[in-house]
Specification:
The protein is an alpha+beta fold. The protein is 40% helix and 21% strand. The protein has a single domain, classed as Ribosomal Protein S5, domain 2, CATH 3.30.230.10.
């Protein structure tokens, strides 16, 4: 995923949390905020409660790979997304994370 599609600054994350909407599964929480213009951007928040640095980085890599599959679908929307991992995500497989990502994007009506 290219750098222009990533949320990086703390104030961007705070804006999505404060003004956005959310949906959740057992492993992930999706926050999103509709923008007026631009392209979609994605950020990931993985707490130390989820695991050590190796586990947290693995989860972020897997989530980036999941979203890369749906980049063409998300390109139609002007939205900032933040995925928050819950501790249950630490032991999950790529297929389970991908299933949760699809479920959350459907709940938010970004995918059919």
């Amino acid at each position: 995923m290219r750098a222009e599609h990533r949320l990086k600054l703390n104030r961007e994350f705070r804006r999505v949390f404060a003004r956005g909407r959310s949906k959740a599964t057992g492993r992930l929480v999706l926050y999103w905020w509709q923008k007026r213009d631009g392209h979609f951007r994605v950020g990931f928040s993985v707490s130390k409660k989820v695991g050590n640095a190796v586990v947290r980085n693995r989860l972020k890599r897997q989530l980036r790979a999941c979203l890369a599959q749906y980049q063409n679908i998300l390109a139609e929307h002007s939205v900032d997304f933040v995925f928050v991992c819950r501790p249950a995500a630490a032991g999950s497989s790529f297929a389970e994370l991908n299933e949760d990502v699809v479920r959350l994007l459907r709940k938010g009506q970004f995918m059919v």
